[in-house]
Amino acid sequence: MGSYLVWPDYLILVSFLVISLGIGVYHSMTGGRQRTTAEFIMANRRLKVLPTTISLLVSFVSAISLLGMSAEMYCYGTQFLVNIVFVAIMFLTITERVIIPWLYPLKLVSAYEYLERRYQSKSVRMFGASLGIISGILYMGVCLYGPSAALESVTGLPLALSIPVMSCVAVTYTALGGMRAVIWTDVFQFVVMIGGLLAVIIKGLIAVGGVSNVIRLTTEEGRLELANISLDPRERHTTWGLLIGLTITWTHAYGLSQASIQRYSAVDRLYKARIAALLNIPPMILMMTISCCMGLIILAFYSTVKCDPIASGEISNSNQLLPFFVADIFSDSPGFGGLFLSTLYGGSLSSISSSLSGGAANFWEDILEWKLSRLPENRKALINRFLVVLLGAFATVVAFISTYISGPVTQVAVSMIGSVAGPLMGVFVIGGITKVVHWKGALFGGIVGLTFNLWVTIGSHTVTLKDYSLPPLSTDGCKATNFTSIDYRQSDNLQSTMAKNGNNSLSNYLTLSDDAELHEDSWGFRDLYAISYVWYVPFGAIITSTTAVIVSLLTRDRELENIDDALLIKFGNFFDCTCREKSKGGMILTTEGAWKQDNERDDVDKINSNYFAEDEKGQFRPTDDSDKLMKISTHL
Q1: Tens digits of per-residue pLDDT, 37-75?
Q2: Residue 527 in 3-state DSSP?
Q3: Which residue(s) pair with 582 in the sheet?
Q4: Is the backbone of residue 31 left (phi > 0), alpha (psi -120 to 50) or beta?
Q5: 226-229: long-range contacts at Cβ-Cβ below 8 A with a sequence spacing of 24 or more?
Q6: Torsions phi, psi of 597, nearest 5?
Q7: Cα distance between residue 58 and residue 65, in whole Å
Q8: Residue 274, exposed/middle/buried by CB under 10 A (0-12, 13-18, 19+)?
Q9: What average pLDDT score do residues 95-101 get?
Q10: Distance (Å, rounded) from C-alpha 421 to C-alpha 417?
Q11: At what angle do helices 63-76 and 281-304 cross, to 10 degrees?
Q12: For residue 287, what is the enclosing H or E element?
């Protein structure tokens, strides 16, 4: 591919990067010019629904997703694709029905602010924030390294150039334009990603002779897998593992991660936040389906030419399949290589900038703000910009360290990201469903859950695991004469990162020898080490929650009586299909059951002080004077 990249390709890529930077510069010079933390971190809580919807999507569908999903179809078959539609519907519905009505009314800036308010403990908040920041840095490092390594091997674009360019661009527009720049660059990058993916799909279908040939060859090559109803959690993918495990994993990403909560809280109304989540269902299904279908088209193409690029040694791992395929089909089409590079860069930049913005918000709100609260707003905003640069530097270091260490160590970093999500979800959810758990139980439960997940993660790299990859394609049509006989099981597959996206995954697929296999009669710790990555978040959450309840019951805390009901999950919201706050006389009834002013009603703004009283919690409630209430409704 490197030989076919010509000046139009580089022009398209440079133009893409310049436009992304320009969006950041524009938002640094308009509006309030990002001079306050409210504007820099939360865009003054005035984001619109459509850009918020798109930003949520591309924050979790990264370049690693595009590479990983196509590799998943090629190496392991269609079972993931068959189940992912139902997974997307379920986790987004749970997010919209339960999590947003629970957390949005609290007007959080940092997701971990909830932990302090619920458990009345700075320690629990610091525990959650520390895990979130560290996992975010690791995730950004993987987002920088994974696509860059794949591109270097196929296009010749050196890592020493690709990683710093991606990092500098993301850091620059995030630091300059804050949340607004992140949102609008996400929108721009989404458009580029869709254009690039559709170009690959259309050209690929033409090359293989249409959809019917893709289906036929997928079946002939043994990749058509519809269901696996096994209950064994050690199996890499089963119907139950995908439907339950991935639903819980993605619910954490879309509902409880900093990137998601920051965006929901930045729109000005609850119903708009809920609509943004619901509107993610069609494009999420579309993006995942397109990414998976690219893998099947790649399979059909190399089955037709009878030359498996992995088995023949033309590429060293499955993450290089997509760029290698693009090089083959677009070798005589100047410009399309640049569009594809922009697609991968866009997928990486959107995820990196979201993590930078969220990590800086966590660092400021959870660690620094209470010590530096007396600083003027412009100084606070400047510190937040510095935090973006600092986190970007750390992520770049992680990416470069990965270049000097073989694949499994990178997988360890990805595994640790997944290890964090389960304990954090457990601490959030158990605090939301019961008042029994206090700060000691939550902190101890989180530590136990984290320890368990890390133990299993590290242990999984000490044993040989069963190989689930399907047989390679034919190499009869390959031009090379000295094949290296590379098996799929030797490829450093980043499908684990794709499956979790919001910082939540692990692949239990390691570099193995041909006879490496976890035998069915294995027992003890080996069984734990063999647990599929899709169960890491559910198991971590269950262990954390159970431990938290037990410890809390053994160490009673009188302060439990002071927990505000507004901090608990109201499951009745699951059956509320209105998506709007109930209103009366220009007031909104929040999910806490309190009436507050509807700030979008100018008439109410003018008369609010005359007819509504602010209670000790800062909430507006109607006065007892029925005559005045009648006047309000008449006026409106």
Answers
A1: 888 888 888 889 999 999 999 988 888 888 888 888 888
A2: helix
A3: 589
A4: left
A5: 226/78, 226/79, 226/82, 227/79, 227/82, 228/79
A6: -70, 140
A7: 10
A8: buried
A9: 92
A10: 7
A11: 50
A12: helix 281-304
